[in-house]
Specification:
Elements (H helix, E strand, L loop, with lengths): L5 H5 L6 E6 L4 E6 L2 E6 L2 E8 L3 H9 L1 E7 L5 H8 L15 E3 L5 E3 L3 E15 L2 E13 L8 H8 L16 E4 L5 E3 L19 E3 L1
Length: about 210
């Protein structure tokens, strides 16, 4: 019988990054937490991208991407902007000023980041819900000396920030908290089919406070 505790999985070391790509019609970006260097000569990195993300499809089509390395100064609003809404429904760069284009023509995030890496896909591997993209680095630029944002730091310090529009607590009401993004649902019972309005995870991601 499988015994998989989510808190054990989260103790793996992760970073948090904004991954960007584009095709001829559209730019998009999303949050990912798996990216690592795998060779030095040439410099190659590997990223894991959820197939449900539009950015995944743009990388499959274009073969290129940028990885913006977030810092501990990152706010919950940035995480929400790139992680809790879909580029299939909104243009994430329409009114977003903290970005500019690199040499490959893609956006990178220039605020609350300490570097960006541009890369060209050389191979990919399919793994159920995600695709692993193996890519050769074509450009890597340092932007600041601020510490990189880890998944652990996000959970301890950033996820607790309440984005604009967060529901206010009413004394006496039962609260159900999303373990992914921190959204709070108030009510005696959490509907079995409830979908988090921020991160789109289901009722199984919620715990009673």
């Amino acid at each position: 019988m499988e015994n998989i505790e989510i808190n054990a999985i989260r103790n793996l070391s992760y970073g948090l990054f904004v991954l960007t790509s584009r095709n001829h019609q559209q730019d998009n970006g999303c949050i990912i937490n798996v990216a690592s260097q795998i060779t030095e000569s040439p410099y190659r990195i590997v990223i894991a991208v959820n197939k449900a993300n539009l950015t995944h499809d743009l990388i499959k089509e274009s073969g290129i991407f940028n990885l913006s390395l977030l810092t501990e100064e990152c706010t919950m609003e940035t995480i929400k902007h790139f992680g809790f809404q879909s580029g299939r429904n909104v243009n994430k760069f329409a009114n977003f000023s903290d970005a500019q284009r690199s040499g490959n023509g893609l956006y990178f995030i220039n605020r609350h980041t300490n570097a960006y890496i541009s890369a060209k896909v050389v191979d990919s591997k399919d793994f159920e819900s995600h695709t692993l993209f193996i890519a050769e680095v074509t450009e890597a630029v340092a932007l600041s000396d601020k510490p990189s944002l880890t998944y652990a730091y996000y959970h301890q310090h950033i996820k607790t920030q309440k984005p604009a529009g967060a529901p206010t607590s009413n004394e006496g009401k039962t609260q159900w908290v999303c373990s992914v993004c921190g959204y709070v649902y108030e009510g005696d019972e959490l509907p079995a089919d409830f979908i988090c309005p921020w991160c789109k995870h289901g009722a199984d991601a919620f715990t009673k406070k």
